[in-house]
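Structure tokens please, single chain.
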Amino acid sequence: NFPNCTTVIPLIFQTNVLTELRKWKLSLIEHHKLQMRQEKEKHTAHVRQLSNEMENLKELLHAYEISIGRKDEVVITNLTQALERQKEKLELMRKFTLWRIQHVKAKQEEYANRMADRQFQTALMKKVWAAWRSLSEEKWKDKVAKACRLRAEDVCVQLTNDYEAKIAELTSTLEQTKAEILRLRSEREEYEDTMKKAFMRGVCALNLEAMSVFQSK
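Here you go.
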């Protein structure tokens, strides 16, 4: 028995259609694989390019870090040297002030010793005059005593005036020295404040420079 023609022809047509569909499907799959391969190659090349750019940026960043570090070292070195010089200057001023104070004290002690010697001489003179009065005649006793008393009073008044004047002079010198110490302390505080502000300005300037560099990149 032979198959019917009306049945065989649709089967052949269906087989051909399925074969074409399978070929078309395989072609689409191959085309899709080719596109995926091309996209993967493009992605790999783009990633490689980005990696190269990242390495270049890392090298540039390292160079900027080295440059900024060198600038920081220079600024810190300059500030340290300036602070050391100011410290030496303040130390010299302190030593000079202490020397002046000791000198004034030595002058005061010397003057006090000299005044004590004068007082001792005056007392000794009074004793001598008293002894001489006791040995003198009665008629000269009152006259000599009065003269000695007047002379002693004059000497005491003169010594007292000299002593008060010298004390006033030394007191004025001491006040001037104290004022000079206060001025030196004020100058030192102002200088330290200026140095701190200069250091902060330098640090801020470096930070702004670094920020501008990063922002521009």
